[in-house]
Amino acid sequence: MIYFITVNYYSTELISQLIRSFPKISQTPYRLLIVNNSPKDITINQLKSDSVLIIESLTNSGFGSACNLGLNWVYSQDPNGIVWMINPDAYLLNNSIEKVENFCHEHPKISIAGTIIYTEGDTIWFAGGIFIPTTGDIISKEYLDTSPDTKYIESEWVSGCSLIVNLKNFPSCPEFDPIYFLYYEDFDFCKRYANQGHLVVTASQIFIVHQPSSITNKNIINKLKYSTHSYLITIHKYANIEVLLLRITRILLHAIILLPIKPQMAIGKIYGLLLYLKQQI
What we know:
Helices cover 36% and strands 24% of the residues. It is an alpha/beta fold. The strands form 2 sheets. Strands 1, 2, 3, 4, 5, 6, 7, 10, 11 and 12 form a 10-stranded mixed beta sheet that branches. It has a two-stranded antiparallel ribbon with strand order 8-9. Helix 5 packs antiparallel against helix 6. The longest helix is centred in the C-terminal third of the chain and has 19 residues, at 220-238. It is globular.
């Protein structure tokens, strides 16, 4: 059984598109769990069906915490199941479900796998990620350029937009760190479990399509607030103090430069920096 987990935040139309991309007939049984992070959004209830379950969150506690609700539900029902976390603004391509099941059976030692993510323009948006601790850079890398025929490439991190977890490799339910509200929780998830000995890879033969930032771009201030805050938390965890201080200085200077020309972006960065600093006091 494959359990899809997606997080709803006023995204009923997008999730409807995701559901339409699922095969009407599949050799692999599957179920979609929608974690409703917008409790006032009653339109999401129209998507309920035998194969679609809605889990209500009492409040919007962030992407990672919402995913944890879904992960714990699945783990309590089927600790050997396969979880595919997927963004509401993404959708499947042909035979994706069967490919994931086969991939997990053929490579049982892989605990976490990302997929190749395309934009609607058929360009690759994500195909694996690396981290450079000496500079604090967390970037995607085009692994397919060097190994186009391999079934997977080991990655330092993979995108939470399309992230597969083989639960049977975990003695307890894997979870995102709830300190992250939005952004970089996928990086932290991969790094933490890789440090525990779990294998993290990018599956090069499994594809989805993603409409980048179709949700978060609706509020630029919040987008920059949470991305800045989460980035600083991550650098605090995985880089040294010199890199952290350098990044804080860069963010502050960049915000000052942006303030007269792009005030929303500047304010978002400043809010994110202040939120991080407040947590350190």
